[in-house]
Amino acid sequence: MIPATRLTQELIRFETINPPGNETPCARHIGGLLEAAGFRTSYIPMGPNRDNLIAWAGGSGNKLPLCFSGHTDVVPLGAAPWAVAPFGGDIADGKIYGRGSSDMKSGVAAFVSAAVSLAPRLEGTPGLVLIVSAGEERGCEGVNLLARQGVLPKAGAIVVAEPTANQLLAGHKGVFWLEGTARGVTAHGSMPEQGENAVYKAARAALALEVFDFSEDVHPVLGRPTVNVGWMRGGLNVNSVPDEARLGVDVRLVPGVDRERLIERFRRATGGGVIFEVMGTSDAVWTDPEDPWVRDVSGVVQSVTGAAASIGGASYFTDAAALKPGMGNPPTIILGPGEPAMAHQTDEWCSIKRIEEAEAIFSELIVRWCGL
Ligand SMILES: [Zn+2]
Fold first, then answer.
1. N or C: which end of the chain has fewer CB atoms below 10 A?
2. What does the H/E/C string look like for the chain?
3. Is it the case that residue 310 has pLDDT exceeding 90?
4. C-alpha of residue 210 to centroid of ligand 1, in Å
């Protein structure tokens, strides 16, 4: 048995900045603990030194296993200097410091610790499946690979332990990344009236997107979709009329928005001057908060944390977008000890109290799911 707090420190000490990731030593360390506790493991590489880990324990014919999932990669440190050692896992004032402490090595540690302590009692029960992914921070590459390879097992419910400060979230927005291209006609910069300026078209499109009307797309919990023009490029030299300009558009979708139709709506809103192309997309995730298991989890969270359980949604996206459809579309929640506001921050930390609470919550979820 290993307390989740100590395991969080150990996992922070594996430097897994993505890119390049190098998640394998961290994944093998977790796998070793699980194997020693009786779990079966499988490592699925997404590249050199980039293992994903799937681990199982128990399993019976009449009920699917409970799944916990988290990623081992972390984002770069950023330009600002750190006041603490980013890979030290040092403890001060009831907090563990380091890159990945909140996002999300504490979450992985909490479910691995709970799974290891309960492992001796899992034989002959519905059991557990743990998905420890690589490459989450750059578009969920690890779990997308597992889904494509068809190696994701079916699960009865999924807990993604991303940072929520132990608040129960029933889903999150999806992503729809577009690239818009405006074309014009080049001319000498001294005679702009003879050309057609693509930068002006792209700029008008960006300003139209800023005020795009999403009022027909409101979700009761996740709210409205958002749109952000993340980059814009156009023109080659100061003394020519530019004949091409491009913009990158980041849309965060709520469930139920028709993506093809949205492109058409964008086209109309921007006056037809820009052609949009899809660069990437990931589904929104939503589980009915009235689902019996979600209500049960809500009761467990409330009894452990003492906080009134209101069920919300996350603005960021997670591996759940691939796991939920890939594992048979079971009820899926986002729940973990990390502080959402600390994710990707300088001097990132996680509260030890939250880690202990998460381990207690996850243990209780396993006990109830497996009838221990
Ligand atoms: Zn994360």
1. N
2. CCCHHHHHHHHHCCCCECCCCCCHHHHHHHHHHHHHCCCEEEEEECCCCCEEEEEEECCECCECCEEEEEECCECCCCCCCCCCCCCCCCEECCEEECCCHHHHHHHHHHHHHHHHHHHHHCCCCCCEEEEEECCCCCCCHHHHHHHHHCCCCCCCEEEECCCCCCCCEEEECEEEEEEEEEECECCECCCHHHCECHHHHHHHHHHHHHCCCCHHHCECCCECCEEEEEEEEECCCCCECCCEEEEEEEEEECCCCCHHHHHHHHHHHCCCCCEEEEEEEECCEECCCCCHHHHHHHHHHHHHHCCCCCCEEECCCCCHHHHHHHCCCCCEEECCCCCHHHCCCCCCEEEHHHHHHHHHHHHHHHHHHHCC
3. no
4. 28
